[in-house]
Write a structure and sequence with these properties.
The complex is a heterotrimer of chains A (589), B (92) and C (228).
Chain A (H helix, E strand, L loop, with lengths): L21 H6 L4 H31 L23 H37 L7 H20 L22 H4 L3 H30 L12 H32 L13 H18 L2 H15 L6 H14 L15 H29 L8 H24 L1 H7 L3 H31 L1 E2 L2 H27 L19 H31 L1 E2 L66
Antiparallel strand pairs in A: 1-2
Chain B lengths: L10 H19 L6 H23 L7 H8 L1 H13 L5
Chain C lengths: L22 H30 L13 H26 L3 H32 L1 E2 L2 E2 L4 H8 L2 E2 L2 E3 L5 H33 L9 H25 L2
Antiparallel strand pairs in C: 1-2, 3-4
The chains are: A mainly alpha (589), B mainly alpha (92), C mainly alpha (228).
Chain lengths: 589, 92, 228
């Protein structure tokens, strides 16, 4: 692997003379790479916060009613004497979900990597609309601040779950929370605008700004995944915005959209929320699948098995994801016939995901596997996603769901796909593209230590939750011991809590690796992973303007072990003997 | 590319159509001869006709490529699915 | 090789053929797709709630002022015509008419918003709010009395859903019109500065698409909110 420093000399760089001020270069930058890094730093902070909230929750579940060490710093309204109040616990549950979904995973997958990767991997100098891109980040910041503010207002933070079901979320007299829930709604509407502007940018860029030769079926799967994800964001987020506005109106101006007293419909909230919410969960997994495809091909030194079927699987998931939302509502009292249609469509959607899983395995089969850190995470993704997906099949069957809905079985499923899936993929992706972002490599040794410990503790935390759920342990519950049938499960809860604390502590390794490598990591060359993507033709870190000259693409995205070259990889923009430049595409085609 | 006088669609003609259709809607809405369902159908047909005129001629979809047209109509099936599915909560 | 050499009204030539239209136009169509979904949430909820609670709505014209709104609708359609005429003028490099039509569009749009604000104030005065009847005001009293109202049937016991959906749908439409007027002002100003030509009038076309969309939504809203 090349680790010699590639000197980046601005004087010989043709694309742009970069004489911007510090403020324009790093704070109010229109450069997609800087914006991606801004999202990265913001999201990692929220990821840490979301994890911290989970640790406090786990304290209560592991040691119910006991004073939390250090809990004394919390105010009386949250934890008098360090003992969590039920109202505070439910706010923790709500905010853990909210922060993780909206401010950590979604921006990490989309805000960071759509921004950073798309122009680089398609051969463009930047996004189609760089200033709107900048606005997209700076609109997300006040949304984050508003969401944080909820902890400090009277009545405490929103306490209706990240799904904010009405009428609980619409009536302050039910939760004791007024400002907190309103801030929740407002924050999401603002964040929604940021996401919509971003997705518009990504879609326009991918459609219109691909370099010559970068046809649709030469796009790396990470870009295909980000493209379909952006379409989902574009069309699903506005539904949430509309619904959140209606909920806010119910809270503050006396409307009755979701309140039964005057004919409103609580189920309407659920339908609107999940009509958004189901595409949302595909938004949370598709980019991860895309990164994993890129990384597994790289780590196996083989082209992706079944590239075309991978593309159609992504498109299939994107399409089907719109007609399965009712499976979140089987227990809501919805029309049972309608519920049946959702069961059928949900069973169908397992198919494209299965295709992808077999193709990843087919890629690795008889490959020359390099167990670098991103590859470890990618392989773990496949295994954990399979588990999470299989538990999904149980939930898809309505009769089974009657029993396991709103139990820890669901919590196990969520975390297997979101942590075992998305987060592992993110650890891999961050490690993989770190050199292109910062010009340095993260420590492989500490990366492997972090991976191994995380993998072990993560499974110790979430696997037992399947069993808790099957035994009837419900979600979002402050004190399970109030039910006699749950009392025997307390030791398992405590076990999970201890594992969770260890899991959280291990993430410090990742944090330190991330921060310290920025300053002390081994300098990276252009292509430390010997990868085929266009981004690896640029210096590390990639310069403003990306490419000295617009690249021309000659090959498919995963030409590893290509017979016509001696190296075991063939970059997409490397012209072989006898290959001619593709003719410039006629306009208006 | 800078033609002195390029051929434009008949915008004023479309405008007159729109005005006529609006007047027709107003006329129909306050005539009680129709049953409620028929009234609903006529009004929606008129509204959709007007919307199509705006989309096809003012937004130039009539003269755009298929790619742009697909982009324009893409969200509509989703809107229909959502409304129809949720209405079955009241029916069936 | 940049866009400038080939004209900006075409897609970037150095790239693979994509949508066949320039970036800003593609971006606006993509954005409008998201706007369709936003209005789907609001209008879809209206359709659903009304379908399930038909008795909670007054007859057309009893509470809402159809004549004024019909004129307002006509105005908005006019502004759509002036907008497309402005675009045609830009294509023909007719700076004089470009400015005139843009100015007309902006002013008519502002008028539309003004009339809507007036309408809202009138409704509140008569006793129609997002929460339904306003206690102690005309409509609430008429409903309490129970007799025929303004030539139509008795008013419903509760118009909470009517109020909620009416104000939210028309309110957010009005918000979108207001945003449109602000952008139109900016485009009109640029036109007066002579910044648009036959070879580059992207801003005119793009704001035009947005403006026609806003008109299109109103065409639907006027019918299903005021006339049904």
């Amino acid at each position: 692997m090349a680790t010699t420093a590639a000197p980046f000399d601005q004087a010989t760089h043709h694309a742009h003379v970069d004489d911007r001020s510090f403020l324009r270069k790093y704070l109010f930058s229109t450069d997609h790479k800087i914006i991606g890094i801004q999202f990265l730093l913001m999201s990692l902070l929220f990821l840490a916060l979301g994890g911290t909230l989970a640790m406090v929750m786990r304290w209560q579940l592991g040691y119910p009613g006991q004073a939390m060490p250090g809990g004394g710093i919390l105010p009386e309204t949250m934890a008098p004497g360090g003992i969590l109040l039920p109202e505070f616990y439910i706010a923790l549950v709500t905010m853990h979900g909210t922060f993780m979904v909206f401010f950590a995973i979604m921006p990490l997958l989309v805000g960071v990597f759509a921004n950073f990767l798309i122009p680089l991997k398609i051969g463009a100098p930047d996004m189609a609309f760089p200033r709107i891109n900048m606005a997209s980040f700076w609109i997300a910041v006040p949304a984050g601040i508003l969401m944080l503010a909820g902890f400090f207002v009277e009545g405490g933070h929103a306490g209706a779950g990240w799904t904010a079901y009405a009428p609980l979320s619409a009536l302050p007299e039910m939760t004791g929370v007024s400002w907190g829930q309103q801030l929740w709604c407002l924050s999401l509407v603002i964040l929604g605008l940021s996401s919509i502007l971003g997705s518009m940018n990504y879609i326009a860029t991918i459609i219109n700004m691909r370099a010559p030769g970068m046809t649709w079926f030469r796009l790396p799967l990470s870009i295909w995944a980000l493209f379909i994800t952006s379409i989902l964001v574009l069309l699903a987020i506005p539904i949430l915005s509309g619904a959140a506005i209606m909920l806010l109106f119910d809270q503050v101006i006396g409307t009755h959209f979701f309140l039964p007293a005057e004919g409103g419909q609580p189920l309407l909230w659920q339908h609107l929320f999940w009509f958004f919410g189901h595409p949302e969960v595909y938004i949370l997994i598709l980019p991860a699948m895309g990164f994993v495809s890129d990384i597994i091909a790289n780590g196996s030194r083989k082209p992706i098995f079944g590239y075309h079927s991978m593309v159609f699987a992504i498109i299939g998931i994107g399409f089907l994801g719109w007609v399965v939302w009712g499976h979140h509502m089987f227990q809501s009292g919805m029309n049972p016939t309608l519920g049946m249609t959702f069961m059928i469509s949900t069973m169908f959607i397992a198919v494209p995901s299965a295709i992808k899983t077999f193709n990843w395995m087919g890629t690795m089969w008889r490959g020359s596997i390099q167990f670098h850190v991103p590859m470890l995470h990618a392989i773990a993704f496949v295994a954990m996603f399979v588990i999470g997906g299989l538990s999904g099949v149980f939930m898809a069957a309505t009769p089974v769901d009657i029993y396991i809905h709103d139990t820890y079985f669901i919590v196990a499923h969520i975390h297997y796909v979101l942590f075992g899936g998305s987060l592992f993929a993110l650890f891999g992706a961050i490690t993989f593209w770190y050199p292109k972002m910062f010009g340095r490599l993260m420590s492989p040794f500490w990366g492997k230590v972090h991976f191994a410990l995380t993998f072990v503790f993560y499974n110790l935390v979430f696997w037992p939750m399947h069993e808790l759920g099957l035994k009837g342990h419900m979600r979002r519950i402050y004190d399970p011991s109030q039910y006699e049938f749950l009392q025997p499960l307390q030791p398992m809860n405590t076990f999970i809590t201890v594992s969770a604390f260890l899991l959280f502590a291990v993430q410090i390794i990742f944090a330190l690796n991330f921060i310290l490598s920025w300053f002390f990591g081994a300098k990276a060359g252009r292509n430390p992973w010997n990868d085929t993507g266009l981004e690896w033709s640029t210096p590390s870190p990639a310069p403003h303007g990306n490419f000295e000259r617009t690249p021309t693409v000659y090959h498919a995205p995963y030409e590893f072990s290509h017979p016509q070259v001696t190296e075991d990889f063939l970059p997409q923009d490397r012209q072989l003997e006898g290959q001619s430049r593709p003719a410039a595409a006629p306009a208006g085609h | 590319m800078a033609e002195a006088k390029r051929h434009h669609p008949n915008y004023i003609g479309i405008f007159i159509m729109l005005a006529v259709l609006t007047a027709a809607e107003l006329g129909v809405a306050f005539v009680s001869a129709f049953s409620r369902n028929v009234l609903l159908l006529i009004l929606i047909v008129l509204a959709v006709w007007k919307a199509l005129l705006v989309a096809l001629y003012f937004m130039h979809l009539r003269f755009e490529t298929n790619r742009v047209r697909i982009l324009a109509i893409a969200p509509l099936p989703l809107a229909v699915i959502m409304v129809v599915a949720v209405i079955t909560e009241y029916v069936w | 090789m940049t866009h400038a050499e080939t004209g900006v009204m075409l897609p970037p030539v150095e790239a693979e053929s994509g949508s066949g239209v320039y970036n800003e136009k593609l971006g606006m169509w993509v954005f409008l797709a998201s706007e369709v979904m936003f209005f789907t949430a609001l209008i879809g909820s209206y359709i659903i709630l009304r379908f399930g609670n038909p008795l909670q709505w007054a007859a057309p014209g009893q509470i809402l002022n159809v004549p004024i709104t019909a004129i307002n609708t006509f105005l908005l359609i006019c502004s759509s015509v002036t907008m497309v005429k402005a675009f045609a003028a830009a294509q023909d490099d007719d700076q004089q008419w470009l400015r005139t039509w843009l100015l007309a569009t902006t002013l008519i749009g502002a008028t539309f918003v003004g009339v809507q604000v007036y309408e809202y104030l009138q409704l509140a005065h008569h006793g129609f709010l997002p929460s339904g009847y306003r206690e102690g005001h005309e409509l609430a009293e008429a409903a309490a009395q129970g007799g025929a109202y303004k030539g139509g049937p008795a008013l419903p016991a509760s118009i909470a859903l009517y109020g909620a959906t009416f104000f939210t749908m028309t309110g957010f439409h009005g918000f979108h019109v207001t945003m449109g007027v602000i952008c139109l002002s900016f485009v009109t100003w640029k036109a007066f500065q002579g910044r648009y030509s036959a070879t580059d009038h992207r801003g005119v076309e793009v704001i035009g698409l947005y403006w026609h969309f806003v008109d299109l939504v109103w065409i639907i809203l006027f019918t299903i909110v005021y006339l049904i």
